[in-house]
Design brief:
With 285 residues, this protein is mainly alpha-helical. The protein has one domain. The chain is 72% helix and 4% strand. It has a three-stranded antiparallel beta sheet, covered by helices on one side. Helix 1 packs antiparallel against helix 3, helix 2 packs parallel to helix 9 and helix 6 crosses helix 8. The longest helix is centred in the middle third of the chain and has 43 residues. It starts with a helix and ends in an 8-residue tail after the last helix. Keywords: Membrane, Transmembrane, Transmembrane helix.
Amino acid sequence: MSQSELAALMTCGFASVSGDVMAIFIASGAPTNHLLTAAIISAPAALAISKILMPETEQVDLVAQASIATAEFREKSRNALGAAADGALVAVALVVSTMTNMLAFVSILSLIDAIILWFGNRAGVQGLTFDVICGYVLFPLTFAMGAPYEDCSRVGSLIGIKMFATPVVGYARLGKIIDNRMILEDYIRSTNGTWHWEGPDVFLDDSNTTLVDGVMSERAEIIVTYAMCSFSAFIAIGICIGAMTSICPARKNEVTKLVGLAFFGGNVASFATGAVAGDEKIYWL
């Protein structure tokens, strides 16, 4: 496998989600139909972007590689019991390596988040975290994807949560925001009452109810659903390194060299699908 193919493999991994992870997203409140669509269209987007970032320049002898792989397999596993034992050993190494790398990345991100929060408190800026910063930093990107101007910072914040925490946390908050929008619509339809913003929350005047985390437009909800539908969170870098190096230890240096590029490509693919969803000509909008 060439470096371009290896980068494409990792990029597609960052840009896609597995079935069980998608089930968790749906349980968190994300729209099922849009998640399924995002999972399908992200694959060709990731492949195209990976080839743009790292074009194929090597000549790979696939026949020779297949012969080597077959010979190694026959040498290692001469019978079913041997194959089962080898598989168990590989699985243990894969799980341990993945978990330790993920723990390391989570610890580093938590430390950085705590440092930012500490400096923010000393500077008089309460609640300054990664996702808040991302809400401002990613504002131009979310606007370019088609999010309404008034929702751009909130969409950027959700994308920041997805990148620096996990997509599960981002979808959990998105599900809450979707529920808030439905409550607000029912409130206006049934009572024609007034409401106003209180910081990031929405307060319903007539019912004396606070909708924590506020609301956003349905268009913004769809865009962020597509933009977050991937495995391209920072903790996934540790998972990817652990998994790939366990499967192929000889290419550890190449994996660590390409993982940053693949992570970037996976996020770009997700943002591209979000931009497609944000197009006014798309029928579901």
